[in-house]
Structures are given as C-alpha cells and as structure tokens.
Amino acid sequence: MIVPRTRLYIMFWTFGSLILALLCLGVSGSQSLYDVQWLPCPFVDEKVHVNEEGHTETKYINREAVLQFGNVGDKPLHPTITFLVTASKVDMRRYLEGSEGTLHCEIRRYSTGGIVMRWPTAGAQDHDVWFTCTIRHTQGLFVITTLLRHTTATPAQGQVDFLQWIIVNDRDLLSTSAAMVVLTRTPSVEVGFLKEPNLHCQFAVDHKLPNATVEWRLQRHGERSKLFSYSSRTGKIEGSGVAVKAIAAGNASFKLPPTRKHSEGTYICSVMVPPLYGSHDIPLTLSEQPRVSINVGSTLSMTLGKDQKLICDAEGYYPLDVNIEWYREVSGGSPTPSFLKNVLYSSHRLHQDGTYSLSAFFYLQPGLEDSGYKYTCRVSHKSLLTPIRKSFYLIVTEPDSTMWYITVIGFIIAMLVIICYMLPQYLAGRKAAKKRF
C-alpha cells in the first residue's frame, strides 16, 4: 500500500515534535549546577565577647543570605546579604551534583587563629578576612566546604580576628574569591565486616604547588589516633592508606584495611594550607544482617498430648540490638496476629569475628483447636529494611487407636497360648498325684 505524501509529512512532523518535546523535558528536568547563578545560603553570624572571668563566649545568629556567582562589580540579585563569589581557579560548582532543591548551604565566619600572612595569589592582602561555605547534599551524596577570601577596605588593628569581626549589614554585598575547597563523596559509610571501603577526600587550591599537609585521624571512644600524614613541604610520610602520588592531583582518599569491630569510629580527613584548614568528619559504622532459622520444617505434625521445643535462631548480626518475636495466626493470614507470651531467650553469644547470636524458644503442647495455625518467628534489626520471617504450619492429630487394639489382642493371644500350654501340664500333674495316693 502506498502512503500519500501528505500523510508522510504529517507523520514526520508529529514524530519530530514528540522527540523535541522529550528533549525539552529532559533539559528542563536536569539543570546544570555548573551554570547556577545563585543559591539561598543562610549566614550563621557570630557575636563574640570576653566575659568577666576572662572566657570567650560566642552567640550565633542566623541571618538571611545568598551565595551569588559572577564577576567583580555585579549587582546583587536579591535584597539581602550577598556573598558574591568571583572567578578563580577553584569553582565549587564543578563538584556539585543533583538539583538545587537537594542542596543545603551555610556560610560561617572563619578564624585563622591569629596567623597573619598573605595568601599567595594576586590581589590578596595581609588583612583579608575569611568565610567558609559548606554545601551538603540532602540525600548524603557529598559535602563540600569552600574557604572564601574577602578583602576589606581597611585593615583591622590589634586583636585576634574573632574579637573584631567585620560588620556585615543586612543588605551588604561582599565580593569574595574561592581559595580552597575540601570535598567528600562519602559523608557517612556503613559496611559489613571484612570489607575494604574507600573514604573519599578531595581538595583543590587556587594556586600551584601549595604548601599542603594532609592528615587522616580516627576518633573513637573519645580518643584520636593518627592514621596517615603527608607534608608536601618536607615530603615526610607517616602511616599508610593514601596514595601519595595522587595527593598532588588533590586526591587524598583513604582505603581501609579489612573492617573489623575496632574499625568503627569517625574518620577525619584534614587539609592544611596555611593559614587555612579544612576538614570533613566521616562516621563509619559496621552492620551485618542476621541469618534466621527455626528448628522445624514448613509443616509440623504433632500428636495430642505430646510437646515440642520450638527454637528461632538469629546468628551473625551486628550491632548488638536485635528483636525476636514469636506469634501465631490463622492459616491465610490475620489482621491481628497473636504474639506468644511464654517465649524464653538465651543470652547474646559473641563470636570471634565480632558478630552476635541470640535464640528465642518456647514449648508447645497443642490441643486439637491449635491445628491449622501458622506460627512465625519475626526478627528485626537495624541492618534490615524489613524484618525476616520464618514460619511453619501446625497439624495436631489424636493418638492412633490401632496400636491399642493390637496390644489388647496380642495380650489375649498370649494368655491363650499360656493357658493352652500350662493347662495340660497342670492336669497331668494332678492325675499323677492321685495315682500315688
């Protein structure tokens, strides 16, 4: 069949319009964050003073602000505090993922701790002031901290920076430059035993050959231990876990040895380029799912008057907290299952690999009315999205009367045999006795 040319044109334009619409939807649904012009970014201001006892006290004040990307001289896009991030060799936007709605931004003041030195880039001054901008992905994909440099019109005099913060008014525009970023794409890690996770840590600085020191530390039970350190100035290396050659490219990721119970804790990646210091805390937790079993098959047949010990074992789980419950319901399910109250528990058993086991058991002596019920062991644990269930169906039967009849008949036969065998001998004995007399 030959399709008229007009119909071909209609089909072509219809198909083309559909493809174009899909492309437009795709573009509008996945905005490039590298081109974003601004982000809402509250400013956590500080009011610092020294009290009568000579101690420093800090009051934190949340203020409305935005983070705006552009060039020196740009006007603010919003009538609020604006941190204008101008072009530099470090652009935090290239590390962002997702959409603007998945980002949580926060700006804070940054103290150099009394260190006064000029940042080694053009235009930097000894009296520059610093801010940190931290952007977190709300679903835990990454955390990035950027140190922003702002040059004031006049230098401050005399005191440590946090005792004489520059005043920021409600509609001020502060022109800043991104000097350093520290990023992790593993803000928190949960793994099983004997795994070798890679804790991501990345940094970038706005000038070549920075005097950088990279460290990894582990904090657990209130104590910190150094796992690795490297200084580009001295070339000194302590510990292991980081590919030193990769540090020059800004990769300071740490690979753990096979995880064990003592691997849990908070891992801290820090990068210091004087006078700046950036770090990220990466909590690591271990988790192992329990293996659940019961000591009977899918169907349990019992005779009336007998009893049975039913055991539910949860093995190899971590951490310690686990919940085991026994309940029963009619065959086919019930909206209100009946939980058993006569359940006993063993103590937690600790294995050599650091995992635990627990048993929950009860004694069942059913009646005929219990036949057909479904008994279920349910195990809940933090490593499980949904509890694990193991079930069996109970069948209760009356004792078999056949054996009773067989026993009675056998007894009767045995008595007859005995009588038939003993009676002739008894009669013969009496005859012999009479003859003697």
UniProtKB/TrEMBL annotation:
CDD domains the UniProt entry points to: IgC1_Tapasin_R
Signal peptide: 1-29
Record carries keyword Signal: yes
InterPro entries assigned: Ig-like_dom, Ig-like_dom_sf, Ig-like_fold, Ig/MHC_CS, Ig_C1-set, Immune_Resp_Modulators
Keywords: Immunoglobulin domain, Membrane, Signal, Transmembrane, Transmembrane helix
This protein's record includes keyword Cell cycle: no
Gene3D superfamilies in the cross-refs: Immunoglobulins (2.60.40.10)
Residue ranges constituting the Ig-like domain according to the UniProt record: 290-393
Transmembrane intervals: 403-427
Domain of life: Eukaryota
Protein name: Tapasin-related protein-like
